[in-house]
Amino acid sequence: MLQMERYYAERVGEMKGSDIRDAFKLTEEPGIISFAGGFPAPESFPIPLIERLLQGLFREDYSGLQYGPTEGLEELRQEIAGKMQVDGIPCMAANILVTNGSQQALDLISKVMLDPGDCVLVEQPGYIGGLNAIGNYQGRRIGIPMDEEGLRIDIMANRLKEMASKDQHPKFLYTVANFQNPTGVTLSANRRQELLQLAREYDFLILEDNPYGLISFGQEAIPHIKAMDDEGRVIYMGSFSKILTPGVRVGWIAATEPLIRQLAIAKQGTDLCSSSLGMKLVLESMLSGELEPHIDSLRILYRRRRDAMLHALSSYMPTEVQWTRPQGGFFIWLRLPSYIDTKAMLPFAVAEEKVAYVSGKGFHVDGSGQNTIRLAYSEASEAEIEEGIRRLSRVIRRWIEAAM
Ligand SMILES: Cc1ncc(COP(=O)(O)O)c(C=O)c1O
Q: Taking phi first (over 0 means left), then psi (-120 to 50 degrees means alpha), and beta for anything else, what does residue 255 get?
């Protein structure tokens, strides 16, 4: 057999599988309560709506079965642009590129922007899929710490000054500003302004990835960073995965027209166009008037699950453990005492207590975070959340006691 590695490109050395995918394997055993995958609740998929839309899809035309324009179906681009305008972002169809999920948006932007060794600022902890997309194009990821208000802009400012003194200039900063994956934290309004100010001062772009923004639990929405931007410095990414279904694989990029044209050229080489069927389904769901009420029902569902998890955490966790209190999205972030290695603990959690999570280390570009955990409350029922947290607390207690 040929040793295929001999033929690989140098950049393959930077490609890393995701810890989340590894954790999935552990959750396949029966009886496991898993907080590992950040999947939407399958029972939340609007099946009757999707069935009806699919049935009606081919009555008038067959475009859902044909190749489509690389930039996306024109009508869908218009609808998305209309939504962006409602969110305070001046936007036309020409500013929208429909992508195969926002994961492809991250890949295409990295493909167009990054030369090997280019510096990119990332959240630490940050979304693994984003970190990997940047790594795949050999971007040098520089982690900026987070707290309860999101990115530590003060630390970022110092870092930028230090980098400038060595003639290092980041191409962009990547942020999930609303209900972040993995921490659930939201970047405060003041810090959004300060971030934009820094981006202007040091001349880098901002990638604002917002798949969870509409899954909010009541608090007033903070304006998008892109809504504060008047020079095209912010590239915005959205997705239908969490508000309709990830199976349609439809996301989008909102950016300046010249950048959209360049990204579309990059996309041609990747997949010619996004799935026409997926795009048609999304378009029809937007036109049906039923998407908004569906999103309202998702807010209620996930809010209940968030509440159940917060309640169980405060009932069962030992005092040494701290966690975030998200105002939306799918995730809660746990910090354990520094001497606990959550990756080493995971097989015991699965074998002894039948509960799974994702160790936080993989979300850190500097290899730290070994004592952290990401919990998703999106997929488990309220009863499972209560029981799963009770089990996890028992494992953590045992590990703390064993380390004493
Ligand atoms: C922050 C973030 N960005 C992007 C994605 C990719 O989403 P999709 O490609 O399904 O739109 C995810 C998926 O979980 C995510 O959490």
A: beta
Strand partners, 355: 33
| Strand-strand pairing, 140-147 and 150-151 | antiparallel
Place of tokens 């190749």: 67
Q: Which of 179, 181, 282 to mutate to test the pocket of ligand 1 (most atoms within 8 A of CB)?
A: 181
Candidate of 18, 103, 128 to mutate for ligand 1, largest count of ligand atoms within 8 Å of Cβ:
103
pLDDT at residue 28, rounded to an integer: 67
Burial of 52 (0-12, 13-18, 19+ CB in 10 A): middle
pLDDT digits (tens, 9 = 90+) for 340-396: 999 999 999 999 999 999 999 999 999 999 999 999 999 999 999 999 999 999 999
The CA-atom distances, in angstroms, between 73 and each of 246, 260, 279, 284 are: 18, 14, 7, 12
* Helix intervals (H) in 87-147: 101-113, 128-136
Q: Which fold has domain 61-287?
A: Aspartate Aminotransferase; domain 2 (3.40.640)
Whether residue 182 has a cis bond before it, omega within 30° of 0:
yes
Give the pLDDT band (50/70/90) at residue 71: very high
Residue 92, Cβ neighbours under 10 Å: how many?
14
The helix or strand, by DSSP H or E, that contains position 171, with its residue range, turns out to be none
Does 213 sit in the ligand 1 pocket, CB within 6 Å?
A: no
Domain boundaries, the chain: 4-46+293-403, 61-287
State how far Cα 118 lies from the chain centre: 22
**What pLDDT sits at residue 239?**
98
The model's pTM: 0.96
SS3 144: strand
Task: State the CATH class of domain 4-46+293-403.
Answer: alpha beta
- Residue 372 Cα to ligand 1 midpoint, Å, equals 21
> Mean of the per-residue pLDDT values for the chain?
95
Structural contact between residues 220 and 240, judged by C-beta atoms closer than 8 angstroms: no
The pairing of strands 355-356 and 33-34 is parallel
DSSP state of 41: P
Nearest to 295 by CA among 257, 253, 328, 259: 328
Is the Cβ atom of 127 under 6 angstroms away from ligand 1? yes
Distances (CA, A) of 395 to 318, 338, 345, 388: 11, 16, 8, 11
